[in-house]
Amino acid sequence: MDVEKVIYERRTIRRFKQQSIPLETLKKLVDFARVAPSGNNVQAIEYIIVHKPEVREQLFPLLKWARSLPRAERTPEAGRTPTAYIIILLNINIKKSYYEFDIGASVENILLGAVKFGLGTCWMGSINANKIRALLEIPEFYQITHVISLGYPDEESVMEPYEDSFNYWKDDNGVMHVPKRNVDDIIFKIS
Ligand SMILES: Cc1cc2nc3c(=O)[nH]c(=O)nc-3n(C[C@H](O)[C@H](O)[C@H](O)COP(=O)(O)O)c2cc1C
User: Fold this and answer.
1) What is the pLDDT of residues 37-56, one digit of tens each?
2) Which atom belonging to ligand 1 lies closest to the Cα atom of 111?
3) 11 lines ligand 1 (CB under 6 A)
4) Domain CATH number, residue 124
5) Within a domain: 182
6) Torsion angle in degrees (nearest 10) through CA of 127, 131, 132, 138
7) Number of structural domains found in the chain
8) Element containing residue 108 per DSSP (H, E)
9) How far is the CA of 141 from the centre of ligand 1 (A)?
10) What number does the ligand 1 atom closest to the CA of 157 have?
11) What is the mean pLDDT of residues 123-150?
12) Is 88 a member of any domain?
């Protein structure tokens, strides 16, 4: 797939069809993350793949969705929840400075890679890390940084030019609109 198309097509998706994702696909996404750039090449990011229905059900309530939307519209309804998760762990025995950037690079590889498989994703920082640790028996030497929710999209999301608010919003047809700043507004200088 064309890189440009993938970059522009990727949007956060928060409603999913209930078709399961092959485990091989999920492993491939972790492999995309594996080869991301890493400060000093220390590679301190590790992963948990969650795909079993009974585990998914317990993980779902530990995530918070779509703070820009009215409360009633935030959380995916039953039957439209993610069909897999990739949990981002930082191995604190390995981590060095710049690890935050490593996390960003690894996650972006997963999000963009998911487009290749027709998957939608939601990068989630609003998570109950303590309860996730208990649920999945994650040892203390891992910092739980984010959860990526995944599934085949059951909603549409489009970019629109930023006007006066960064808030994303849903129209009457359920289409998400995501304001993005104009390229000429973010280039501070061309010298
Ligand atoms: C670090 C980070 C944390 C995020 N955490 C959440 C979250 O907890 N819940 C959620 O619904 N979306 C979360 N998002 C998704 C953003 O809301 C989304 O990326 C933003 O609205 C822009 O939409 P786009 O990804 O379609 O460009 C997060 C995104 C990033 C980069």
Assistant:
1) 999 999 999 999 999 999 99
2) 25
3) yes
4) 3.40.109.10
5) no
6) 140
7) 1
8) helix 99-116
9) 26
10) 26
11) 98
12) yes
